[in-house]
Write a structure and sequence with these properties.
Length: 211
C-alpha cells in the first residue's frame, strides 16, 4: 500500500539536517515495508498519526513537544493549611491505623485528604459515625510525608451542619485566613459615639454619593 510520510524541520537545520532527515524517512519506509510483509497476505493500511519517529527533537514541530519542569524551591507558603470538610472512619477496620486515625475529606478537592487522630474527633464518633456524616469540621494540615498518599492534620473545631449559612461562611473565612473576630475596643472607639450619626451637608458636598 501507498504510504505518505510528512516531516517538518526548522530552516536553521536545513543545511545540516536534510541528509539526516532523508535517512530517517528511508528507515521508516523500510520498517513499514517489513511490517507489511510479515503480516502475510491481504491488504494492510499503516497510519501514522504522529508523523515519523525522529530521534532529533529539533526536526519536530513545536506543537509536538511537551515542555517539562520541576519545582526546586518553595518561596512562600500561601495556603492557610486549613480546610473545611467531613470526617469518616477508615475503610480497613482491621488495620492498626483504624484504631488511631480517621479520614478527613475536604470539600475543596484541590486539598488532599488528611489523617486526623481519633482523639480529636467527638467521643462517640467511632460508635455513631453516621451522626457526623453531614457535620462540617475545620482541619489544619500539619505534615505531609513524601511516601504517604494522605497528609496528617488536626481537627480544630466543629462548625455545624453542612448547608447552613453560618457554618459554611465560617469555613470559607477560615480557609482563606480572614480574621472575622470581634473588633477590639480601640477600633470601636474610632467610630462616631453620638448616635444616630449622619453625614454632614458639608462633607456630603465634597464626596461622590455611591449609595
Amino acid at each position: 500500500p501507498d504510504v505518505i510520510i510528512e516531516a517538518q524541520f526548522d530552516d536553521n537545520d536545513a543545511e545540516h539536517g536534510q541528509d539526516h532527515l532523508q535517512d530517517t524517512l528511508t528507515d521508516d519506509i523500510k520498517k513499514l515495508s517489513l511490517d507489511t510483509a510479515e503480516k502475510g497476505d491481504g491488504v494492510h493500511r499503516t497510519r501514522q498519526d504522529d508523523g515519523p519517529k525522529v530521534n532529533d527533537p529539533r526536526l519536530l514541530p513545536d506543537e509536538s513537544l511537551q515542555r517539562t519542569a520541576k519545582v526546586v524551591y518553595i518561596l512562600e507558603k500561601k495556603h492557610s493549611r486549613a480546610a473545611t470538610g467531613f470526617i469518616k472512619l477508615l475503610a480497613d477496620r482491621n488495620s492498626e491505623l483504624f484504631k488511631r486515625c480517621a479520614m478527613f475529606s475536604p470539600v475543596d478537592h484541590r486539598v488532599p485528604r488528611v489523617y486526623v487522630p481519633l482523639a480529636d474527633c467527638p467521643p462517640d464518633f467511632v460508635t455513631k459515625p453516621e451522626a457526623y456524616s453531614q457535620m462540617l469540621f475545620i482541619c489544619r494540615i500539619v505534615d505531609w510525608k513524601e511516601d504517604c498518599n494522605f497528609a496528617s492534620g488536626q481537627l480544630c473545631k466543629s462548625l455545624g451542619q453542612a448547608g447552613e449559612i453560618e457554618p459554611e461562611s465560617e469555613g470559607i473565612l477560615t480557609e482563606y485566613g480572614v480574621d472575622f473576630s470581634d473588633f477590639s475596643p480601640e477600633v470601636l472607639e474610632c467610630l462616631p459615639q453620638n448616635l444616630p450619626w449622619v453625614i454632614s451637608p458639608g462633607e456630603l458636598a465634597k464626596r461622590r454619593d455611591l449609595r
